[in-house]
Design a protein that fits this description.
Elements lengths: L9 E3 L8 H11 L5 E3 L17 H9 L8 E4 L12 H21 L3 E4 L9 H18 L5 E5 L12 H10 L6 E6 H6 L8 H11 L5 E6 L1 E2 L10 E2 L8 H8 L9 E3 L10 H10 L5 H8 L1
Helix pairs in contact: 3-4, 4-5
EC number: 3.1.21.2
Cofactor: Zn(2+)
Pfam families: AP_endonuc_2
């Protein structure tokens, strides 16, 4: 990945028929002045998917090539409802393996190499059983996935029986799959804060722990979000940048961290009165200066 003046920073962008599928996704990212972006291939709450042939892939690749966005910095987020950690319901687990295998194939056909995945939940079993089931599912998926596709396990906040709520759990999965060469991590700032990592006051210490348990070479993308709740709350409620408990200064420090400058970072913050805030958040993080953009949006309506 080539050196750039600004850190890699973009957002989740919609990708649907109403926004002209992949062509529209690129336009939205460019309108935000983003240099990377993430999208879902369908609604995140279900597994209904439009055939790749309808997503305008050739036009998408042409538009990306003519933009300031490198295709290697674009990510697909798998839907939330897939659960590879379910060791009690064979149908749920088998469906997850089948769907995610298809999702990785879709990513390959589109030309996107990064796929972000929630590790899942133990749902009635122990955490260890859930982690072992996740390893089993990933082994099945990795064995048949297209070449060049990288899976990024997301750090989770600790709601219910979620897996991947600390670096040790993710390290266990990475160390125990048969082939971990294409398995890495997506660090979500809201999630790690909510799960007990004090990135507000001790980012350097959290970095050291991540490197010790997993390794910096496995941090392949990040979600940049503020948190509506406090440290170790286990709540997973995203806040707009500078309007939550982590705060603008801490998040700006993370975004500009030289060690992770070329790691793609995606905003997943809430809409403000139905308006996407990402162009405002990207600008102020690049400028390293907080502005009350929520007020700006509200006054423009």
């Amino acid at each position: 990945m080539s050196e750039i003046n600004y850190p890699l920073l973009g957002s989740y962008v919609p990708m649907s028929k109403s926004t002209d599928y992949l062509v529209g996704a690129v336009k939205i990212a460019e309108s935000e002045d983003a240099n990377c972006f993430m999208f879902y291939t369908g609604a995140p709450q279900n597994t209904k998917r439009v055939p790749v042939s309808e997503l305008e892939v050739p036009e998408f690749r042409t538009d990306i090539a003519n933009s300031d966005i490198n295709l290697n910095t674009v990510a697909i987020h798998a839907p939330y409802v897939v659960n590879l950690g379910n060791s009690l319901k064979a149908h749920t687990f088998d469906f997850g393996v089948q769907f995610l295998s298809q999702e990785l194939q879709r990513a390959s056909e589109i030309g996107v190499s990064l796929v972000v995945l929630h590790p899942g939940s133990a749902v009635g079993a122990t955490v260890q059983q859930g982690l072992d089931q996740l390893v089993k599912g990933l082994d099945d998926i990795i064995a048949t996935k297209p070449k060049g596709i990288k899976i990024c396990l997301e750090t989770m906040a600790g709601k219910g029986t979620e897996l991947g709520v600390n670096f040790q759990e993710l390290a266990y999965v990475i160390k125990n799959v048969k082939d971990s060469s294409d398995l890495g991590v997506c660090m979500d700032t809201c999630h790690v804060f909510d799960s007990g990592y004090d990135i507000k006051n001790n980012w350097d210490g959290v970095k050291e722990e991540f490197n010790k348990e997993i390794g910096f070479d496995k941090l392949w993308c990040m979600h940049i979000n503020d948190s509506k709740n406090g440290l170790d709350s286990g709540s997973d409620r995203h806040a707009n940048i500078g309007y939550g408990q982590i705060g603008f200064d801490a998040l700006c420090k993370i975004v500009w961290d030289e060690q992770f400058k070329n790691v793609p970072k995606y905003l997943e913050t809430p809409l403000v009165e139905g308006v996407a805030p990402y162009k405002y958040e990207i600008k102020m993080l690049r400028d390293k200066k907080f502005t009350d953009f929520v007020k700006t949006i509200e006054e423009s309506l």
